[in-house]
Every structure is written in C-alpha cells, then in structure tokens.
Amino acid sequence: MMGARRNPSPGCYFLFLGELLLAAVLSAVPLGVLGGYASEARAEEAALFKQHCMACHTVEKGGGRRQGPNLWGLFERPIGGLPGFAYSEGLKAEQRHWTPALLDRYLEDPKTLSQDSYMMYSQADPEIRRRIILFLETASR
C-alpha cells in the first residue's frame, strides 16, 4: 500500500540511542582534543584523558601550558624537553625520550622516574593508563 507508514523495528531505537550517547561523549570533549578521533572507543579514550589529565595538560598542536606541559609531540621529544616549561631538576636531567612503556610507569608513580617530579597525579589502574596512552599516541601527533 502506498503511503502507509511502517513502524520501525525496536533495533532502530537502540541504534539511535547509541548514536545519541556517542554524540554526548563527543560534545563533552573539545574537538581539538579529539585529534581526528571518530570511533566510539577513541571517544572513550578521549573522555578518559579529559577526566584524568586535562586539568593540567593540553594536547593540541601549539596549545598552551597549564600546570603541566602541553603533550603534543610527547613521544617525539626528550623527557623534560618542552622548551619554556619549568620541569623539576630530575626530569630536566633525564636523557631518555618518552615511550608508551615509560609513560605507563610514570603515570603509575611519577616518583619512579624522578623523586622531585612535580606531577601529583598517579593512576593505579593499568587499563585506564593503557587507554590514556593510546589516546596520546594518536592525539599528540
């Protein structure tokens, strides 16, 4: 019959609700921080970064410093190597570059890398650390 309306399947409503949830998560994180993240998993990682890190750090190219340094290009620079940021003496003396494994150790306990580190945050949950690092591996390039 032409012009007759069909009721959508119940699955359509769940798909729509999922899209609304994703839109809500994406709208809660500034677009510059997403760095091209489009998938739901990446949006969740961005939300974890926002929840745990954005009070002290930015991650946009050319972004300013807060209490902590801008994390853009983190895995391409030496530890304590962002020009103009006031790192602790221990971090300034580090000769290594950031790697995901080293950042994981630092996020678990910043004092393992440098006893005089100014970073107050630590994260005991390895899954949260892993997802924050995944976000930074893409968003900071």
Notes on the protein architecture:
This protein is mainly α. It has a single domain, classed as Cytochrome Bc1 Complex, Chain D, domain 2 (Orthogonal Bundle). It has helices at residues 10-28, 31-34, 40-52, 89-93, 100-108, 126-139. The longest helix is centred in the N-terminal third of the chain and has 19 residues, at 10-28. Mean pLDDT is 81; it is low at 4-9 and 11-38.
Helix content: 40-55%
The CATH architecture category equals: Orthogonal Bundle
The count of domains is 1
- One letter per element, helices H and strands E, the order comes to HHHHHH
| CATH class label | Mainly Alpha
Give the full name of the CATH homologous superfamily: Cytochrome c-like domain
Biggest β-sheet: count, sense, barrel? none
Provide the structure class: mainly alpha
Please count the helical segments: 6
The value of Rg in angstroms is: 20 Å
CATH fold name: Cytochrome Bc1 Complex, Chain D, domain 2
Overall mean pLDDT score?
81
Task: Give the quaternary arrangement of the chains.
Answer: single chain
Q: Bin the strand percentage.
A: under 5%
Low-confidence stretches: 4-9, 11-38
